[in-house]
Design a protein that fits this description.
Elements lengths: L2 H13 L19 E6 L2 E11 L11 H19 L2 E12 L4 H17 L3 E10 L4 E11 L14 E4 L5 H11 L8 H8 L5 H10 L4 E4 L4 H12 L2 E5 L7 H10 L3 H6 L7 E5 L1 H13 L5 E7 L4 E4 L5 E3 L12
Parallel strand pairs: 3-4, 8-11
Antiparallel strand pairs: 1-2, 2-5, 3-5, 6-9, 6-10, 7-9, 8-10, 11-12
Helix pairs in contact: 2-3, 2-6, 4-5
The chain binds magnesium ion.
Length: about 325
Amino acid sequence: MKLKDVGEFGFIDRIKDDALIRKYMGLVGIGDDCAVFKVDEGKSILLTTDMLLERVHFLREVMTPHQIGYKALAVNLSDIAASGGLPREAFVSIAVPEDLSLEELLEIYQGMKDLARKFDVNITGGDTTTSLQDLVINIALTGEIDEDLILYRSGAKAGDLICVTDNLGDSAAGLDLILNHRKEMHNYPQLIKQHFMPIPHVEQGRAISRSKMATSMMDISDGLASDIRHISKASKLGAVLYEERFPHSEEFQKYLAELKPDYLKTAIGVGEDYCLLLTVPQKNFADLKKNLNELGHQLYNVGEMTEGEDIYIISKKGEKSILTLSGWDQFKEH
Ligand SMILES: [Mg+2]
């Protein structure tokens, strides 16, 4: 059997059971966006880590070193945001290939530092090693949060509204342009920017967790079609998504009209949106939306949680079907 036979999430299910030797109240291990450690009465530390590999997650020929560094930190910030935390200390490990110059290496760190400064994050340490071929960057990031404010994937209730904090599909469209329509790339600067330099929704995540108006949260890294399954599974519920409610940017609409990609796959099946996916009881939706709007942020309702375990999608024509699209899993065949 190979990893690709079970996928990333099948693999995680197989390793998580005996991983905690010392179990205690307030400790959460493998399976959510962050691990959680209780450090003091009422205070918890969040910990997340993410690895970016050349040719798997990025192409060095189309991304600047600054963008590579920025994105490596951004994806980690997004996981702290997903739990509602305040990002704090970053540890950067990097494997440097022979053909990467010192100037490029320093630019990678500059990309990280520029983003770290915006979110008041320290780069506190790490490791540097040599690589035989590809550039590899791994970042581990801590976050702080009050124990009673942490949002997990498991808190959703039947009837809760499924919400997202940004437009869907821009990053996926950007990736499609980079891989398949390189000549047209310059016509879509926002889609490319969203793919290379996503802004992690840390402020939104903190506002949502502090409001206590949401029941579960995670970030969208693999696409709504995949990530809603994590909330459904963890909360032991089903879900229904409404295609006509999916929010899209103007540039995304232009891309759809001009390049005619597979709509559903691009909108919810590729991911890297790095916005937040959350569930909100219906009675809280208007207040939470107002709350976020006042901070200059968005909240869109795209569906609701249901009893059962199936995920349905209602097409723009009103047809209801089981959602078969599963989103990005790097270990499965595409
Ligand atoms: Mg995540």
